[in-house]
Amino acid sequence: MPLADAATLDNTLGLPCRAERFIAATTRDDIRAALAMARRDEVPLNIVGGASNLVLAPTLPGVTLQVACDDWWWEAGDDQTILVYAQAGLSWHDLVTACVERGWWGIENLALIPGHVGAAPIQNIGAYGVELADVLEAVHVMYCDDGRDAVFSRDECEFAYRDSLFKRALAGRVVVTQVVLRLSRRPAPRMGYGDLAERVALHPEVRAIFDAVCAVRREKLPDPAVLGNAGSFFTNPVLEATHAGRLLQEYPAMPHFPQPNGRVKLAAGWLIERCGFKGTRWGAFGVHERQALVLVHFGGGDRQALLALADHIRDTVQQTFGVMLEREPRLMG
Ligand SMILES: Cc1cc2nc3c(=O)[nH]c(=O)nc-3n(C[C@H](O)[C@H](O)[C@H](O)COP(=O)(O)OP(=O)(O)OC[C@H]3O[C@@H](n4cnc5c(N)ncnc54)[C@H](O)[C@@H]3O)c2cc1C
């Protein structure tokens, strides 16, 4: 049986949080034992990775499980691809770095996203025009109710923008133990997003794109080690074309991205900035000065104050544009 002591839970927002019983599971047996403990004692089970996409309560009751298995390995897929197997506790950025060092293409645009491999499929992490779903082959899970193993193919994961089956029907019901990615040996640069293309040569190496992504992110996003944050606090809203069309008549400069299904994605950061929030401070929290989508914690604040600010921003955007923003990080506890 793994140790299950009370512990302070570090999180990128820097909110104070104490987990009543924290288990860092370094083996599959540990994971199974943690699940069994929560069932036996009939207490809540909280599954965390790096806590970079969570708004935590001051206390997490029950069992808090962090998968700490962090091995990875690979095998040849076909003559053009590599299959990468990564355990859930591995740092996502470390995996990206290791693959880029080997010259494998596919996840270089997802560099510097904080957190663990096991959380990557939950919201189908994405950045700079690439989503995990583009390279994901399979997700290995363990069911919380009886510890049985299962494997989900990419199609079965029902991936969408910042969404998957694991956020809906299977939310809180499975622990991701491993993901399998199919990466390419052949160059497959994707530079259509933002100013990436301006920063790299016409025929770049995978390392150059990785470096450019890291540089842009360091310029634009606050480092959680310096200033608490959870990355984007809201997802980009996706509207019916008619609704977006009406807004565009009023705000012709509004960034908008037509989707394959006919709907139109807007930039939540632009909407928040237009409401005058960018760079403002509200007690212990504020709206980042370079990226209005990121709420920051200057220290000493609590979850209630953060959520009050988020609600105020959401309501103001709703009143101004008739668009309802949705929170990206999950509340836990
Ligand atoms: C500065 C910054 C920049 C960011 N940039 C991006 C970005 O560009 N794109 C993006 O998509 N996200 C971004 N994020 C959000 C975040 O990094 C990702 O969502 C990441 O995948 C969260 O990983 P984590 O290990 O910290 O998960 P946590 O925050 O610990 O958990 C997130 C969710 O996943 C669940 N979970 C975690 N591990 C498991 C597991 N093994 N099994 C089952 N469920 C699990 C948790 O229960 C929770 O619901 C950013 C965050 C920060 C702080």
From TrEMBL:
HAMAP family: MurB. Belongs to the MurB family. Keywords: Cell cycle, Cell division, Cell shape, Cell wall biogenesis/degradation, Cytoplasm, FAD, Flavoprotein, NADP, Oxidoreductase, Peptidoglycan synthesis. Cell wall formation. One of its GO terms (molecular function) is UDP-N-acetylmuramate dehydrogenase activity. Pfam families: FAD_binding_4, MurB_C. GO terms for biological process: cell division; cell wall organization; peptidoglycan biosynthetic process; regulation of cell shape. It comes from the Bacteria. It catalyses: UDP-N-acetyl-alpha-D-muramate + NADP(+) = UDP-N-acetyl-3-O-(1-carboxyvinyl)-alpha-D-glucosamine + NADPH + H(+). The lineage of its organism: Bacteria, Pseudomonadati, Pseudomonadota, Gammaproteobacteria, Oceanospirillales. This is UDP-N-acetylenolpyruvoylglucosamine reductase. Its main location: cytoplasm. Its EC number is 1.3.1.98. It is found in: Cytoplasm. Residues 15-186 form the FAD-binding PCMH-type domain. It comes from Chromohalobacter marismortui. One of its GO terms (cellular component) is cytosol. The active site is at R162, S232, E328. Pathway: Cell wall biogenesis; peptidoglycan biosynthesis. Its cofactor is FAD.
